[in-house]
Prior knowledge:
This protein has about 300 residues and is α/β, with parallel strands linked by helices. Helix content is about 50%, strand content about 15%. The chain contains 13 helices and eight strands. The protein has helices at about 15-25, 35-45, 50-55, 70-75, 105-115, 130-135, 145-155, 170-200, 205-210, 220-230, 240-255, 260-275, 285-295; strands spanning about 5-10, 25-30, 45-50, 60-65, 95, 120-125, 135-140, 160-165. An eight-stranded mixed beta sheet has the order 3-2-1-4-5-6-7-8, with helices on both faces. Helix 12 (about 260-275) crosses helix 13. The N and C termini lie far apart (about 45 Å). NADP nicotinamide-adenine-dinucleotide phosphate binds near residues 32, 66, 71, 100 and 126.
Amino acid sequence: MTDTVGFIGLGIMGAPMARNLLSAGHRVVAWNRSPGPLEALAEAGADAAESPADAAARADVVISCVTASADVEAVLLGGDERPGAIDGVRAGAVVIDMSTISPAVTRTLAARFAERDVAYLDATVSGGEQGAIAGTLSIMVGGPADALERVRPVLAALGGRITHCGPSGAGQTVKLCNQIAVVLNNLAMAEALVFCQRSGVDPAVMLEAITAGAAGSWQLSNLGPRVVVRDFAPGFKVGLQQKDLRLALEAADELRVPLAGTALVHQLFAAVERAHGADVGTQALVRAIETLAGVEVGGRPNGTSNGTSSGG
Ligand SMILES: NC(=O)c1ccc[n+]([C@@H]2O[C@H](COP(=O)([O-])OP(=O)(O)OC[C@H]3O[C@@H](n4cnc5c(N)ncnc54)[C@H](OP(=O)(O)O)[C@@H]3O)[C@@H](O)[C@H]2O)c1
């Protein structure tokens, strides 16, 4: 038997995730703040809700995938603008937040929903836009194990690896570990590309050679080729990455754990944000290293620009 899923937040990640739920045979009642993505999903077979509360009222399982902690609070708890999912959700339902937010805010939200006899899971994801489209996300879950088993068929439509990480907030904590590893891989890729360019070797050839070896990473395979063709369109936006690094650095500060490399990348991304905006893809980290080195990857082999750079 398939569930009716209330889906809140149809951004880069949420829209393809909701489509995969439809393809798996679930009924989807969706809500998005701006109308465009909602209309597009309705054409694919979803029902449109009038508010997060309306989506929740018509669903067995409620999924949110919005931006930051305050945004999750806005759609789940509601506010002056509109009622939140908590105002409509049925007792016995399961709420799954798939955004990347603070573990502490997550635990507070779980307690609020528990008062309504509603289980709350933090089910953060990794795998990027491509993983969301392909339904191959890695899903890191915190919260009650029985609630996870209840919604596993829903999550299975979105991702291949579903890991129960521990109690409420544990999924968010593991996601922050993921982000620490991701940004350091991104920095490694950026430095390798700039060094290669300055050395006069074709960066595309370098990527082909090393992606299959010990240096291989998701960043290198998926984002490296985009840098070579100067494609800085977002799968994952720099502004969102910075939000996650802030969460990681705050949590590390509380734990008295130094994260020297992560802090460095956070600063380099600040330079990228200032020069190119928060909506470029995270592969734009290379632009900070390029500026330091006076080299543009994809330019002439000696490192000078060939004029193909785009701001996007
Ligand atoms: N993109 C990735 O590769 C990736 C990977 C893993 C995890 N994530 C995480 O997944 C979440 C979503 O990322 P995304 O890339 O899909 O972001 P996105 O494309 O910027 O979409 C954000 C979505 O949240 C909605 N939203 C934001 N603030 C809201 C508010 N206050 N009230 C109501 N709706 C609000 C937006 O609505 P509008 O359409 O009205 O703006 C939009 O639907 C983030 O927490 C991100 O860190 C992203």
